[in-house]
Design goal:
By secondary structure, the protein is of the alpha+beta class. Helix content is 29%, strand content 27%. The protein has one domain. β4 and β5 form a beta hairpin.
């Protein structure tokens, strides 16, 4: 599954992961929206990227750009890079949709390597919350997603390499002249409850790999893309 790491591009991603570990091991959580749950079990992943602007007006204008990037799930792969996962927004029954994300939607995730059988080749997450807040000189918007069953199938077998207790939380924040993108995985454990044996093996191996490597790379690249000032 991770053979791409040994290619030239993969080598760059491996080095990025090493840098992420040293840069983020002491990171303080930045979440004014309150979408990120408390960490109580399993692992966690913290990722933060930021861009500084010379004026308040520039920062406010770019916050609006970054906010739209965050809400446009279908373009996340363009921001993070084609070597990594593809994200597709769907409605509550799994039909693809082309609009900004809202609470109650699902996201279909296509990661490199074998897919989930129960997920028809994909990993699925449910959008639990979309929250936005502003006060003083702060603006922030956050999304919380949780591993979910494939909405197009029964039974309700979690179609994701993480267990259902895990969440991924995506936050764009403007503090004065700084705009940042933060991504927090909380209460992360591999999914060991799949009914299908092949899925159970796949989830455990993929979940362990994601906890130690893949998600860190994926989220750092996405965070960078969300606040890249290329206007």
């Amino acid at each position: 599954m991770y053979s791409f790491l040994f290619s030239t591009s993969g080598g760059r991603l491996w080095w990025l992961c090493v840098c992420i570990y040293y840069q983020n091991r002491d990171m303080q959580k930045k979440d004014y929206t309150g979408v990120t749950p408390e960490q109580y079990d399993g692992g966690k992943i913290d990722t933060l990227s930021s861009t500084e602007f010379q004026s308040l007006d520039e920062a406010k204008a770019f916050y609006r750009v970054a906010k739209l990037r965050l809400l446009n799930i279908n373009d996340w792969q363009k921001l993070a890079g084609k070597l990594l996962a593809k994200f597709e927004l769907t409605d509550e029954v799994g039909n693809p949709i082309d609009r900004m994300v809202k609470e109650g939607d699902y996201i279909k995730v296509d990661i490199p390597g074998p897919g989930s059988k129960s997920g028809d080749g994909y990993d699925w997450v449910h959008v639990e919350a979309v929250e936005e807040t502003s006060y003083d000189d702060i603006e922030s918007i956050g999304i919380r997603v949780r591993p979910a069953a494939n909405p197009q199938k029964e039974p309700d077998d979690i179609s994701h390499f993480y267990s259902q207790q895990a969440t991924s939380n995506f936050i764009i924040t403007r503090e004065g002249t700084q705009v940042s993108a933060a991504i927090y995985d909380r209460n992360v454990e591999p999914n060991q409850d799949a009914e299908n044996l092949s899925d159970k093996v796949r989830h455990v191996l993929t979940g362990a790999g994601a906890m130690t490597l893949f998600s860190k790379i994926q989220w750092k690249e996405l965070a960078n893309g969300l606040v890249k000032n290329d206007l």
